[in-house]
Amino acid sequence: MPELPDLEIYKENLKSKILNKKIIGASVLKPQVLKQLSASNFNRKTVGKTVKNIERQGKFLVFNFSSKEKMVIHLMLYGQLQWVKTTEKKSADACLILEFKDNSLRFVDGTAWMKVTFDSKEIDKVGLEPLSVEFTKEKLQKILKKKRLGNVKERLVDQKLIAGIGNAYVDEILWKARIHPARVASLLKNNEIKSLYQAIPKILREAVGEVRKRLKGEVSGEPRDFLAIHRKKECPQCGAKIKRIELNKKGTYFCPSCQK
Question: Which SUPFAM superfamilies match (predicted)?
């Protein structure tokens, strides 16, 4: 699933392609991806409209149209965006298509799990943005202390608490902060919370730069080759063998030597 750094670059690259451009056609090939929206309503809300802005909120992409309406997209596990020539043959996995003058933006998902809606209430549920000025050490501490039980990884990937961090980057953040992912969140010490608070924006901002270099203008892809710990064999800090465990039903990678 794409996480904050991936989606931030999709947003950047989409802006360079479709900002202030008019949608001249739309196709709904898998209507099940539309939430609280019929195919005819999707066409009515998109065709003839201009894309005025694109935002990222957590793991959502938000298209702001000239009509003042917002199209909210969640790619889920396997969803992808494709920017192609309109004449290019459609994939059997294409769910939705927005046509511009010469190119089309295709929403592709073989599972059809991706979600597209014009109900902006979806983004109202999103938690604190970790790269915003509103993200403070005090707010992070409050999130960690919110419940007596629950591990720190679970708390950081809860999208209603902190937006955009997923399974890959939480491993990187906790490694950087030298905190074991299974630690009880509410029992972290003040110096550990400080380390975590510093690690979150640092890891995410560095990742945004690395993803930008690798995607080179594309609007899909989840590069992970630059990560230090997630799905790696050896800790780059101490050389110890990386350990993989199941935590919250997710594969979790950490260094048993560096992370306590």
Answer: Glucocorticoid receptor-like (DNA-binding domain), N-terminal domain of MutM-like DNA repair proteins, S13-like H2TH domain
